[in-house]
Design brief:
alpha/beta, Nucleotidyltransferase, domain 5, 5-stranded mixed β-sheet, 46% helix, globular, ATPase_NBD, Euk-type_GlcNAc_Kinase, ATPase_BadF, ATPase
Amino acid sequence: MTDRVLAIDGGNSKTAVLLVDADGKVLAQVRGPGAPPQTVGMKRGLDVFEGLAREAAVLAGLSPDEPIATHTAAYLAGADLPREEEELTRAITERGWSPSVVVGNDTFALLRSGTASGVGVAVVCGAGINAVGVAADGRTHRFPALGQISGDWGGGGHLGEKALWLAVRAEDGRGAPTELLPALLAHYGETSILTVVEKLHFQEVQFDPHALSPILFEVAGRGDAVAQSVVDRLVEEVVLLSTVSLRKLGLVGEPVDVVLGGGVMTGTGETVLGPVRARVLEVAPLARVRVVDLPPVVGAALLGLDTIGASPGAELRLRSAYDDHLPVQASVEVAAGG
């Protein structure tokens, strides 16, 4: 069998699958719904991954009776603890997509997509927030990233909930006036935020906090102090995640990469990046801080190519297959049911 890597980026809101050969040539890429096994259940989550993987194999012209790849590199949101990574590795191995399997947290894929070696610190702020640090000698630093119980703050969902919380308190008098209130009323098409709350309570309106996060940044950008205070708190958290990892690994004096990614980061421009960069450089003056919007699935594929010992030219070919960070091949949508 020609060496191939099956790369999976399993996020909370979407799943991306990339099939590449050992030379870094893109054979197929498909996308589908988010299906974190820890959230939707192991079987359903892996059924979604398998549907996408099989679709990629068909697009690549593979025979149904041959393994999809030599190696599967699955980097998943929700694979936050070693125990979870071990369970997922066993479950994916049993599916028989490839002879070898590596499962890791999706922050590792972000770090690899933004670096030439996978060394440095990556902070992802999308649906949730997390970070990872990797030193040149292989040492790693991670956070549990289990939400409130593990000290987390941030992520698109959390920011959206905060925006609604502030709007409610502005209307009922418990909080300071804020332009978040009229902005959210316009979003929901209501004249009172308490009406929105009542409809949310009775599930007459779907609550999608991730949709409120961009509104928070938009209002903050217009000079609203209340919304800006939340953005400032997010900046503080991203700086903490970055600098704690740098300190734990002894990298504060090194010319190290600090890469930021996820929907919140890529959608806010300099609003978050500018102050984060300035404050990280106060701690680690040689650091290179930037947002990476290359799809994390590319980082997963690069980690897979590293595992099979692909040549440096394979990385160059894979990266060059992306124009304006969009895959060459059209994606295929797969229903959430798998």
